[in-house]
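Researcher: Sequence of SDR family oxidoreductase follows. Predict its structure.
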Amino acid sequence: MRTALITGCSSGIGRATAERFHRNGWTVYATARDTDDIADLTERGMETVELDVTEDDDVENAVGRVVDENRGIGCVVNNAGYGEAAAVEDLTVEELHAQFEVNTYGPHRLARAALPYMREQHEGTVVNMSSVGGRLSQPGLGGYCASKFALEALSDALRSEVRGFGVDVVLVEPGPVRTPFGDKAEEKVKERPDDSPYADLYERVGEFNQGVSDEGGDDIATHLMGKITVPPQRVAETVVEAVEDDDPKARYKISVPHRMMAMGRYLPSEVRDRIYDTMI
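Model: Prediction complete. Tokens:
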């Protein structure tokens, strides 16, 4: 069943993933909150669907369309994501909730909608786009990391629950990727009040985001951050390889530097804290 429903295709990883699946001969349903942002994908032979992952009706309609037009669904890629850069004290409950709505509840909605069909087919793959931040929390990104930690926990449980039905659940854990995501996070940082007690933290977070976006920075830390970023096409290749594998791994990390970053979770907390102190 070579049909793929992909969320968050207006730019970055989602768009690159839709393009990669299409090149590999899949029937692609690319989604975005505004289909004007993905109109060009229609011209290139892909189906487009308006989908806000926070809306139950949108999710049910999108999955229903794929199933009706293909008599099943092969793959769901939960890529849509949202990050709010803020110190935990500055982060409002509404801002925290919004990140969970998109990053955690959204994938849960899509999985619940697609799984009955996948179980009936006795095949299918759910790909959840996590992050190094889903394994290692970072100052200034506590809310985002919390939502990704939760996604990892749900995915691990789900993988064991549906394996017997022939359904695979895969986590993809990119590190820094050259997408507009970092630019949007930097814009959010600039909205924080100048008199915040965490102003220095926001300045550093902004510099790191700039390092990701510009492939480098003025100091060693941001310069290195820029150098270890990867293009979204690299992530897309990994997603498609995982889905087309008859026995995919539970987790995919994109590059050696990303694997090294994820290993930071095994360091003693005191050591991690000292590292962060030198960075911020």
